[in-house]
Amino acid sequence: SKNVKNVLLWNLLDSCGGGIAFWITGYAFAYGGDEATSNKTFVGNTNFFMMGEIDHAFWFFQFAFACALSSIVAGTIAERTQMKGYLFYSFFLVGFAYPVVAHAFWSTHGFLSNVNDEPLWGSGAIDFAGSGPVHMMGGVTALMAGIVLGPRLGRFYDENGAPLDTPVDIPGHSTPLAILGTFALWFGWYGFNPGSTFGVSSKDAGEVAALVAVNTTLAACSGALSAMFTSTWMDYRSTGLHTYDVAYTMNGLLTGLVAITAGCAAVETWAAVVIGIVAGWVYLAASKLLIKLRIDDAVDAIPVHLFGGAWGLIAAGLFSTPDLMEKAYGQSDHVGWFYEFGRGSGNFTLLGIQLIGILFITGWTVALMYPFFFVLNYCGSLRVDPLEEEAGMDISRHRGSGYNFDQSAHEDVSVKSLKEKRASIKDKKSDPEQEAIKEVEP
Question: What whole-number distance in Å separates Cα of residue 363 and Cα of residue 404?
């Protein structure tokens, strides 16, 4: 509850700052100059500032993808990141880093694209709506930020910097809002996934969109149930009690959505259920791995998006069927590995390309974003002051609490210390940015 205004403002700026970055360079680097050709390029080179001939509906749809990726990182680094550091990375991510990956997967000039006239190994990668370019890249970026930024105060280390025997859980302040947000994301997925057919005017396109919606639903349902009942079983094994974790259930659902996003148009409904079940297990394993490695992820975005996105790309390379590939992509020469065995070939082409996509996303993002966050941190533009973190970003940077209550009755020592520090700074130097924090009226 100490960072409500901060988190809400970040979510607003994901769209505002990201929209400007995508308008200036993002769209141009991702799709500028697209045309039917066999040429392969690293980035696009036209349509900067939306100059030239533009499909405005397509621009708007792709802008939503770009800003969704930026919001993934915001969850991981919440409660301890400076606003200017957030704005720097968000603008850079949407304006350049993400467009390179989007270009590789979805542009007609992309080296992994299945719509290139001469796609890689005669196939190209299968990612219908962004398991890799959006979710996995967002997860890898979040991982780089979390490593450089470090954990929240008291999460893994005591006040002297000594490792805690048991990490301290720092739960969100409102479970109802978390559930509401999960439903909002689930609903929004029906825009991303079925919307990626880019039209339902033909019979085939309508059938593809309908299948995508059904598969999206089933993967979400099975992911939630898988994560919840698996965590219940694990708790029972260790404590003898049956408990049902709400956070695990929500994140299992989201991981199922992330995982189905790549193959939603090319897999049967039973495969969507299997993908969701495995996604729930992937989430739980990845979440516990981060804790073991002492990497602090405030909302478990890395397990959901990085690991869920990687599993989604692999699943598309395993379960894509010839008939559905033909209907959605117009080719069925290279299909899911399990179906290739059914043909008696064991053709590894599609699965191999999916693995190349995973390696490309990981390599590009790590090589670009780790140095970026390292430089921000070195320049003092990433992590907030410890006292400000302890008091909360709302009090320290957003002129008061996000909730309307008598603040004086709830102030702790850190808030009072912060006010005293700000007052002393004001006495020494008249600087608007160091203005003393105003009292919130009851």
Answer: 46
Burial 270-299 (b: 16+ CB within 10 A, else e): ebbbbbbbbbbbbbbebbeebbeeebbbbb
Distance of CA 117 to CAs 36, 101, 121, 325, Å? Answer: 7, 19, 12, 17
What is the C-alpha separation between 133 and 30, in angstroms, rounded?
11
Q: Are 384 and 392 in contact (CB under 8 A)?
A: no
First-to-last CA distance in the chain? 17
Query: Alpha-carbon distance 192 to 172, whole Å?
Result: 27
pLDDT (tens digit per residue) in 196-234: 998 766 778 899 999 999 999 999 999 999 999 999 999
pLDDT, tens digit (0-9, with 9 covering 90-100), for 295-325: 999 999 999 999 999 999 999 999 999 999 9
* DSSP assignments along 339-366, one per residue: HHHHHT----HHHHHHHHHHHHHHHHHH
Question: What is the model's pLDDT at position 414?
Answer: 67
List the one residue out of 227, 198, 228, 226 whose CA is nearest residue 212. Answer: 198
